[in-house]
């Protein structure tokens, strides 16, 4: 009599686990889990597979998706244009979208052969995008016929 009783217990356990195994392999269910940020365990704890990751993160399940990181430009940062004697000619600011300010005023810049080039009055500024060419960052005054280096702050 003991043998049939064991058989029934094993069969009941196997049948109880069968629905969970079937759900884990269901593509639609898996897609809902991925979209919601839930796992099978957190779903049992209250994570809602019909909500987004952000909504479930607000409810305390998982973490909210990180916002997209703004791409940086090799030109971005603060720069100083100096004369050969060391006097400051201009302070230059370039943001991640390559918007340029010279002494606090916005100027139009363009790319030319891997460099960012912009002009204010008679002075043309050239900043190289390749860090290996940092010694080639320079300004040139076509009126006074002077030039000098541009360095990061």
Task: Jot down its keywords.
single chain, alpha+beta, nine-stranded antiparallel β-sheet, 153 residues
Give an account of the 3D structure.
The structure is a single chain. The protein is an alpha+beta fold. Helices cover 29% and strands 30% of the residues. It contains four helices and nine strands; from the N terminus they run H-H-H-H-E-E-E-E-E-E-E-E-E. A nine-stranded antiparallel β-sheet has the order 4-3-2-1-9-8-7-6-5, with no helix packed on it. The longest helix is centred in the first third of the chain and has 24 residues. About 8% of the residues have low confidence.
Kindly state the mean pLDDT as a whole number? 83
Q: How many H/I helical runs?
A: 4
Determine the N-to-C terminus distance: 88 Å
Largest sheet: 9 strands, antiparallel
Overall geometry comes to rod-shaped
- Spatial strand sequence of the major β-sheet: 4-3-2-1-9-8-7-6-5
Estimate the helix proportion, in percent.
25-40%
Strand percentage lies at: 25-35%
Low-confidence stretches are: 12-23
Radius of gyration: 32 Å
Provide the succession of SSEs.
HHHHEEEEEEEEE
**Structural class of the secondary elements?**
alpha+beta
Number of strands: 9
């Amino acid at each position: 009599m003991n043998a049939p009783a064991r058989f029934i217990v094993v069969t009941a356990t196997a049948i109880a686990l069968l629905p969970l195994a079937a759900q884990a392999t269901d593509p639609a269910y898996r897609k809902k889990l991925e979209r919601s940020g839930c796992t099978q365990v957190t779903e049992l704890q209250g994570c809602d597979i019909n909500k987004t990751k952000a909504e479930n993160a607000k409810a305390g399940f998982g973490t909210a998706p990180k916002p997209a990181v703004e791409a940086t430009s090799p030109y971005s940062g603060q720069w100083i244009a100096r004369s050969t004697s060391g006097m400051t000619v201009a302070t230059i600011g370039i943001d991640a979208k390559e918007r340029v300010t010279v002494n606090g005023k916005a100027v139009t810049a363009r790319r030319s052969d891997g460099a960012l080039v912009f002009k204010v009055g008679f002075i043309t500024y050239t900043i190289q995008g390749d860090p290996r060419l940092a010694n080639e960052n320079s300004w040139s005054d076509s009126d006074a016929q002077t030039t000098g280096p541009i360095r990061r702050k």
